[in-house]
Structures are given as C-alpha cells and as structure tokens.
Amino acid sequence: MIQDFYIQAQKQVECKQLIKGSKFFGFLYPVAGEQEAKEKLVELKKTYSDATHHCFAYVLGKQSEIEKWSDDGEPSNSAGRPILRAIHSSQCTNVLVVVVRYYGGKQLGVPGLIEAYGSTAENLFDQVELEHIPILLDYVIQCDFAHEKDAWLFIRQQKLQSKQIEYSHSHCFIKVQVPVFQEQDFLKNLSTFYMLGVDKED
C-alpha cells in the first residue's frame, strides 16, 4: 500500500543522560539526503572528538527506502539498532539520530547498552515536533494554445499548484503536483476535459 504522506522532524533537538557514570548525548537532525547526514556526523565527531563512541542511525526517503546504522565499536546491535528502532517507532524519515557516549568506567552489558542508546534516542523524539507532509506526484498537462484557459480552469478546480510552464510553437505544457490521495479523482476529472492531455513524470 502506497502511503499518502511522510513524517519529518521540524527542527534539530538534543538531549543528554547519565547512566552508571557514562554520559550519553543525543542529537536529532532533519536531513535532506545521505550527503547531509554524513556531513552532520563528521561535524559531531569533530566537536566530540574525545568521546568513546559516536553511534548513529538514519532513515531517508519519502517511503523510508534508505536506512543505515552503526555501533561504532560497541557490541554488535547494541547501539545502532536501538537507535534505528526509535526512528521506526516514530515513523519519521529524512532524519539522522546520533548518540555520543563518554565511557564512565562501569560496564553496562549488552542489555544495558541497548536500553541506554534506545532510551536516549526515544528522548529526542519525545521533544521534537513531527509534521505530516503529503506525497506529491508530478504530472504535465498539455494543450494547444486555444485551450490554455481550459487547462488553467481545470487546475483551479482541482486546487493544484503549478510548478513550471513551457511553450512550444503550438502547445502549452504545465507541470502540476498532485497529492497521492487525489490522483484518481484528478485523472477521472481530467477525462471530462477532452481537449487536455497529461503525462506522469517519474
């Protein structure tokens, strides 16, 4: 089932907690893509260069199609995975979560690490406001010059936003964005405007 919307964090947030002497600093960043996530991670590693571990997870894409995590030297699946689970629980995407640890001299054990990293990440999502963003599809409405007014009438009726307009020697091409939930009605109603053509862009 294709989702109608995706969820994003509205702003960057931070948190910290002390567990058996170890300090855990949590950072949540809204990110536009993998490159930005990597840059944020590099910045944090420079700022907290003396920390014991910089564990992280990120989820990217409107359908959450990209995800990555790292334990950064902690026992396997004791840090990155719990952070990732917190992201999954929030259903958030386009987000990077980093938990920086300063070792405090006491071993936490794998269950303790899972709890510490997971709870730090969860604390971040308790603080941040999430927004639901409709997934938009790109269509191009085509018509000859004589029917351009009809095209704009249809666009207004459907309450669509036009992104770009191009003209050839005889035709007009108007790129519009259609919310996923409106796509079927859009195509059905367009069929009544016989003078208009349409192409869906990838």
What is the helical fraction, as a range of percent? 25-40%
Query: Structural class of the secondary structure composition?
Result: alpha+beta
Tally of helical runs: 5
What is the highest CATH level, the class of the largest domain?
Answer: Alpha Beta
Q: What is the domain tally?
A: 2
Shape: elongated
**What sequence of helices (H) and strands (E) makes up the elements?**
EEEHEEHEHEEHEEHE
Give the number of DSSP strands: 11
Query: Which segments are poorly predicted (pLDDT under 50) over 5 or more consecutive residues?
Result: none
- Strand order of the biggest β-sheet: 2-3-6-4-5
Going by CATH, the homologous superfamily of the largest domain would be Impact, N-terminal domain
Strand content: 35-45%
Q: How much is the radius of gyration in Å? A: 23 Å
Distance linking N and C termini: 18 Å
> According to CATH, what is the topology of the largest domain?
Ribosomal Protein S5, domain 2
Sheet of most strands: 5 strands, antiparallel
Which CATH architecture of the largest domain is right?
2-Layer Sandwich
* Mean residue pLDDT: 94
Fold and architecture overview:
This protein is an alpha+beta fold and 202 residues long. Strand 2 and strand 3 (22-30) form a beta hairpin. The radius of gyration is 23 Å and the shape is elongated. The protein folds into two domains: 5-133, 2-Layer Sandwich (Ribosomal Protein S5, domain 2), CATH 3.30.230; 136-200, 2-Layer Sandwich (Alpha-Beta Plaits), CATH 3.30.70. Helix 2 (80-90) packs parallel to helix 3. The protein is 31% helix and 38% strand. The chain has a five-stranded antiparallel sheet, sandwiched between helices.
